[in-house]
Amino acid sequence: MDISYERALEMDRLMRESEFQNLLFSEMLSLVTLKGDEIVLDVGTGTGLLAEILAEKLKEGAIFGIDQSPAMLRVAQGKVVQKKLHNYYLLKSPAEELVFRDALFDLAFCVRALHHFADPAMALKEINRVLKSEGKLVMCEPLSPEDEELKQVLTEAFQAGHPGYKLFAGADLYSLYHQAGFAETQATDMVFTFDQDGTGGIPMGPHYLQAYYLIRSRGNEELLQRFERELFQVTEQDGLVHIRGKLGFLVAVLDKKE
Question: The domain 5-146+165-194+247-256: what is its CATH number?
Answer without folding.
Answer: 3.40.50.150
